[in-house]
Amino acid sequence: MIIDPQNVPSRTTSNYPEQFKHLIAGRIKQALGNAAGLKNFGVNLVTLAPGSCSALRHWHTRQDEFIYVLEGEVTLITNAGSQILQPGMIVGFPASEEDGHQLVNKSQRPVVYLEVGDRTVDDEVNYPDNDLIAKASPYGWIFTHKDGTLYER
Asked: What is the pLDDT of residues 25-72, one digit of tens each?
């Protein structure tokens, strides 16, 4: 199936609990994989406005992630610190490696990248810098504090 990305709807929303949503303001995602009918993995075309970030710093217990930078200069933040990624660079995050990561646009121009992740069931996302854990469920992500109590919706 041939898809023109310009015809794929953009989304600026987040599933995060309300108190974290402002942190990813300026992030635009287009679910290219969904538009192509993919079931086993997702592909998002992501644009980060200056000052925006991809997500809270996180790592997955079961899902792999892959990033390919298309345009702009973005800062990758991991347990090891910060590193600049430029167009053509890639980075992968294997499942269960406890290396919290996020992309931050510290430049004055938009950043565009492809984000690829699998859709393994029973995934859990850990956020080392925040009191937050996300658990995949058949109904979407369930967000809890690290002590297990639910965030209010």
From this structure: 999 999 999 999 999 999 999 999 999 999 999 999 999 999 999 999
pLDDT tens digits, one per residue of 87-97: 999 999 999 99
Give the model confidence (pLDDT) of 1-11 as tens digits: 899 999 999 99
In a domain, 83, yes or no: yes
Q: How many domains does the chain have?
A: 1
Q: Assess if residue 69 is contained within a domain.
A: yes
**Alpha carbon distance 33, 41 (integer Å):** 7
Read off the CATH number of the domain in which 53 is found: 2.60.120.10
The amino acid at 62: R
Full domain range(s) for residue 39: 7-124
- d(CA 116, CA 45) in angstroms, rounded, equals 9
- Domain annotation covers residue 134: no
Euclidean distance between CA atoms 114 and 46, whole angstroms: 6
Residue owning tokens 């075309």: 45
Q: Which residues contact 53 (CB under 8 A, 6 or more apart)?
A: 23, 24, 27, 102, 103, 104, 105
In the three-class reduction of DSSP (H, G, I as helix; E, B as strand; rest coil), residue 130 is classed as coil
